[in-house]
Every structure is written in structure tokens, then in C-alpha cells.
Amino acid sequence: MNKSSDMAAFGALTFAAVSWGASIVAQKWALGSLSAIEVSLLRGFGALALLVPLWWWQEGTTTKLTARDAATLAVLSLGVLGNHLLTLFGLRYVEAAVGGVIIGAAPAITALLASIILRDLPFRVVALGCAVSFAGVAMVSAAGSSGGAGASPWLGGALVVLAQICWALYSIGGRHIMDRLSPLTVNWTTLAFSVLPQIPLLWMDQKAVTAGMDSVVPSAWLAVAFLVIFPTAIGQQAWLYGVKGVGPSRAGIFINLIPVSALLLSVMILGETLDAPKVAGIVLILAGVWLVNWQSGRYKETHT
User: Fold this and answer.
1) What is the Cα–Cα distance from 143 to 91, expressed in whole angstroms?
2) Of 11, 32, 84, 218, which sits with the fewest C-beta atoms within 10 Å of its C-beta?
3) pLDDT score of 72 more than 50
């Protein structure tokens, strides 16, 4: 690959990671006028309106889904469902900056669960890095209340961590089916399956439906539109383009931009504070992720 192609891939990866970090800020903003279920449903239906036509144009006439595929995708959608809802409910209790920093531990969480479930690496290889990352998670959770009534930083932090566990299980479980189906196919089908069970849940968690849609401020609609277009639709495809261009190993480092962008954008847009516990927490989380990658790479080199 030539230098210009490399730069295009790096640009796509940067765009994806920053948009995913910004999505935390957008979700927090939208929750000012909408409930968690309302935000999730609007995001899901909006993204499907973009992804399904794109899929049909690119591969709809060539992709064949069997009943077994549909069942597998339905199970995988539980990871998407848990990730979206638990993140939104967690952001009710913690600042967006805290939620974004915690999401930085996602690679360590995925490595830990993969070592337990897939046994692709011994637990001892990833244990130290995961412990360091989780120490960072505990630090920012302890310090990061949203400052509002009923704020509970430990509850919010725990919900965001559970959201990352759901995403890790989705990523691990989707490895085999993506040998046969494209990421775009897996993306829209699991998103569609995740939207369906949320429809009856709407009666339990309403805000705009009860108060009236005219109660939703324009900035909340802009936040939802951002969630639909950038992190959910364009961001996913930009990430896949970048991974294809430079490979998964080189692309993985860009994941570290997610918590950094979430933290900085939370300060700039939401006016949240940038204090020592958050900075120390993000340093610990990223150090733990680096340890996991370094020890995993060293183990693979000596056992291949």
C-alpha cells in the first residue's frame, strides 16, 4: 500500500474512533430531553434507514441468510442491545467523560473474556494488564458523579462496564459468523434484532412520549442525528475501511482515541471538569490495554 493510501486509512480510523468517543457526549446530551429507550430506538431505526439500503445496494442480491444464521444473529444482537441500553442507563449516573474513559478499557475486557471463553491466551498473560485497566475504571467511577440529583457514580460505572462486557461477548461470538457474512450484514441484522425487544420496553421508560415531542429541544434532535449518521453508520464503515487498509494490529492502536476524545469533548461541549482522578484513570486504563497487547504479542511470538 502506498503512502497516500496509508494516510487515507489512518484518517478513516481516526474519524471512526473520534466519532465513537463523541457518541458518548451525544448520548449524554440527548438524555436531557429523551429517555434511554427513546434514544436507543431513535438511534436504531435511524441507522437501519441508512444501513439497509447501503447493504442492499452492495450485497443484498448476493447474500443468503439461512435459518441458522438468523438464529445466531438474534443471539448476537443481545450484545448490541446490552451495550446500547446499559451505556445509556449508565450515563444517567455518571458524567460523559467518566463513561468515555471507562469505555477505554474495552480491549482489556475483551482480551480477558476471550482468554476465559476461547482460551486463545492463558489467563496469566492478560491478568496484569486487565488488573491495571480495572484499577483505572475504579478510580474514575469513584470520582465521577454527574452532580445531579440521584447521581450514583458506582452504579453508573458498573453499568458502563457491563455494557462493555456485552460488546466483548458480541465481538467474540461474532468471529465465526463473520467468516461467511460481511461485517455490514452482521451490523445491520444484529442492530435490527436488538431494536425489536426495545419497542415494548418503551412504556416503562418514557420522557418525550409523556411530555410531548415538542418538549425535545433542537440540540437533542441534533445529538440523535449525530448518533445515527456518524458513530453508527459512517463510523463503522470507516473503521472497516481502515482495518482493511493497514491491518487489525496497526488499527487497534486507534481504539485509544475513544476515551481521549470522549474526555476532551465532554469538557469542551458539556462543561465537565478535567480533574486529576480522570487523568490518572485514563492513564491506568491505557497502560493496562498496552500491557495486554504487549504481553499477548510476546506470548504469541514465543509459542508459534
Assistant:
1) 14
2) 218
3) yes
